[in-house]
Amino acid sequence: MADMTGQVALVTGGIRGIGLAICERLINRGVRVAAGYSANSAAAQAFQDKYADRGVTVHQGNIGEVLDTHEKLDILVNNAGITVDKTVRKMTPHEWDRVIHVNLSGAFYLSRAILQHMLDQGYGRIVNISSVIGSAGGFGQANYAAAKSGMFGLTMSLALETAGKGITVNTVTPGFITTDMTAAVPAATMEKIVARIPVGRLGEPDEVARVVEFLADPESAYITGQVYPVNGGLYM
Questions:
Q1: Threshold 0.90, pTM exceeds
Q2: Among all residues, which ones are annotated catalytic?
Q3: CB within 10 Å: which end of the chain, N or C, has fewer?
């Protein structure tokens, strides 16, 4: 693994769950982390306080603020996501649009916002966090599945555009991971989900974060446009 000391990373949705695990892995590699968040200011403050001596910052949806504060950006992890689950018959256009906007358009907007900066410095790592639902679909999750599946096309297209310019773009697709999102699933439903997972358990956030860390490493320069499943064998 290469030395990453002094690099700067923006991790959206970086103060809880998978995003927090990603932040902590990068911090331990010497990366200065800017964690994005939407509403949980208490968790954001707790994160900032915990790692105050490691140069971390928290930001509420302002990419310009990140660049102003850190003066550069080497790694972007598009992790933020929401769910609004309903069957297509019951889903409103607003519920469709909201999930697409946050989960897919958000990744596009941020990637586009930092792209020229990465091109100018001749280096960058972009890692998109999709989901097994993007590969397999999910009952009552047409909006979420469409957004997460859309990340595959975004990843491969942007990878083609930047492959010769020192920038890599890849996607990690977690399965069912122990997070606040899965904690909200009824116990009976979760038992059925776990029964379908070949390894027989939910994944842990750090098991996803270690793959993101690998893709963000400077030595992963020959890996781009790829999709890395982390799902315990649920979807092969």
A1: yes
A2: 144
A3: C
C-alpha distance from residue 68 to each of 35, 47, 52, 58, 87 (Å): 14, 20, 18, 13, 43
* Residue 36 phi, psi dihedral angles, 5° rounding: -90, 145
Give Cβ neighbours of residue 1 (< 8 Å, ≥ 6 apart). 29, 217, 219
User: Hey, what are 214's tokens?
Assistant: 């690998």
Give the integer Cα–Cα distance in Å for 216 and 204: 19
For residues 192 and 234, the answer to whether their CB atoms sit within 8 Å is: no
**Nearest to residue 226, comparing CAs of 164, 163, 155?**
155
Provide the residue-wise pLDDT of the chain in tens; the chain has 236 residues: 899 999 999 999 999 999 999 999 999 999 999 999 988 899 999 999 999 999 999 999 778 899 999 999 999 999 999 999 999 999 999 999 999 999 999 999 999 999 999 999 999 999 999 999 999 999 999 999 999 999 999 999 999 999 999 999 999 999 999 988 788 888 898 999 999 999 999 999 999 999 999 999 999 999 999 999 999 999 99
